[in-house]
Amino acid sequence: MDNSLISSDENPPRSEKSISFLVVDDDARARESLVALLKRQWPDITEAEDGEEAISLIQQRQYNLIILDLNMPKKSGDQVLTFIREKKIQTTVIVISGETSINKVTDAVRLGAYDIFRKPYSFDELEHSIRNALDKLLVEDEKAQIQKRLEHSEQLHRYMVNNSPDLIYILNLKGEFSFVNNSVKRLLGYERADLIGKHYSEIIADEDRMKAEYLFNERRRESRTNRTVELGLKCNAVNSSKSFQTSVCPIELNSMGIYSVDSKGSKKVSTYQGTYGVARDISSRKKAEKLITYQAYHDLLTKLPNRAMLLDRLDLAVKQAARTGQTLIVMFLDLDRFKLINDSFGHVVGDQLLVEVADRLKAEIRTGDTLARLGGDEFMLLLPQPTTRLQAESVAQKLIASLQQPFYLRGKEVYVNVSIGIAVFPDDSNDINTLIKNADMAMYDVKATGKNGYTFYDDKLEHAAAEKISIESGLRKALKNDELEIYYQPQLDVTTRRIVGVEALLRWNHPEFGLVEPNYFIEHAEESRIIEQLSDWVLHRVATDLFANEDFLASGIKVSINLSASDIRNKNFPESLVALTRHYGIEPKRLEIEITENMFMSDIQACTHKLQVLSNKGISIAIDDFGTGYSSLNYLRELPVHAVKIDYSFVSEIEHSEKGAALVAAIVGMAQGLGIDIVAEGVENTNQSDYLEELGCHVMQGYLFSRPVAVSDFLGRITTQKENYSSLSNA
Ligand code: C2E
Ligand code: CA
Ligand code: CA
To answer: What pTM did the predictor assign?
Structure first.
């Protein structure tokens, strides 16, 4: 900013004492007596004895008042007056002269003398004239200063207006711009000249025209216009120095009427002259507000609406459907085994997968539908238009199909399934929270009864849900109240028909719901980490169930225990397991742990080390659900793996497709090549067992041979096997 605008360089008002006099007279006596008289009041007096000296003094400094003789040697008084006039010197000259001719007198006046006295004169009269001259001088001084201040403040205002970051404008009576400040270029991209004379409505965003009508062109004055209004102004994108992302700039507007006041007789009449207004650019504030609203209503990872927005829309949709008597659908979606992917690949990849899943699901829904992410791997879909159950079913099928193609994470093919629970308004409830709860319940039913599918809510699910509500606390209670049990499923060597192994499978003997299978609670237990307590319990129970039994001890049968990722990650693993075998006196070679291939994905090195320790102690390691995971086959070489268990899903394909049969053959071939044992799981019929046997896979587990059975049943079989065997060998 120009400094002169803020520094105040105004002259201080002149005081009497500071008035400077120059007395010019070649008559020394007359001059000195005049000076003596003047000095009584005005101390600053200079003398000159001729015109020449006077001119030289005048050039050196300013005198407020000059008392000048006309008739002088060297330069006359006329010449001094002429000099003053030509040089435009600011001063007041009073002439004192012996001259009497009227010509001389008028000449002096013409040349600018303020007053003329003829010698001899009365000092009182001269003093009176001097006073008048000084009064006039003071008035002029004041006027000059006011003028200067005005100029100064006008300059200041102009500066403020033009450099204001706000758009400042004046509209004339017709609503046309008669003034706009410089900011218009920066804010809206127009040249000032472009707008002058244009009607204001030309720059109002179309949707705000109505709103702007009264506001932009505000006629009311100050106190009545203190509200601030938000509007959009059109930007001139082509002409702008900065590139405008949007062609509408949001502003906050303050405007008021300008009135001129005239006196008509005794009455004051004000006339409307136009409108003055200030428009402030609020785009960054708007952007921030938008972001905040966006964050409040969206899931930032997938950019889908979040729970809050879904609840808003559901509330609205339910009210509307209630009025019109129509139905609407709420679906609860949950990805299966997502936790496993997160554990195996890490959260970054897990997040990426969620984004891709969200995109695929989004592609399947219509514009009026709301797909929201509730958190984790949970999604919710609202179909607000009247939708029949049949239509809902086809949407669910489409959603499931959309995830069927593999995802590629870190170059690996990953399959993701989804479980969908569906609730219908108003059949299942007319309360939004209950609707969501019911959809959730239906979803859990899908999970518990075989994954990857959909089901509608049914009030029979109610008590199943009651149990789910507190699976975690239920499991804690189960541990305390001894509600857990182990079922044993034998593994048979089909060539000898003898039991060579057994898998320990957990059951929850629920006081209300009876025997509950692990698929229902293992995932929860893993999520809540209560799984580690369960595994611990299983190990102790297996030890006491089996290794206290003579026949079992003698049989040499290996027992398999299922462990979870968090068991392996536990810092006490595998030492705790080794300690347990010692505690119960179990031979390590009688123990096998089953782990799924995903478990060691996240930290293969730490896993390899731990499993190596275990293997060195003589405990075997089997890969469970082989072929269904995400890891590479390399680990089979790196890890101390003793056996692979061909998953039930492959075995069941043997009869159904050539491809399925070929796949099983390939797995068996590969394991044989690597010198790894194979166990086929879920063998249900002789077609399967014959085929597997032909391939060279002899050890099998499945309903064909035995379901998982209670410990007493299992031990009974061991005893029978022993008796049969001994009677056989006795024979
Ligand atoms: P898994 O380890 O794959 O266990 C085999 C499952 O297949 C068992 O289900 C078994 O009952 C079932 N099965 C056996 N033969 C057949 C058959 O011929 N046909 C069919 N359709 N199924 C058969 P279960 O006992 O319900 O266990 C389910 C899963 O729960 C197990 O799958 C395992 O992953 C987990 N699990 C069970 N017990 C434990 C445990 O103590 N700890 C841990 N961490 N997980 C366990
Ligand atoms: Ca298993
Ligand atoms: Ca398995």
So the answer is: 0.48
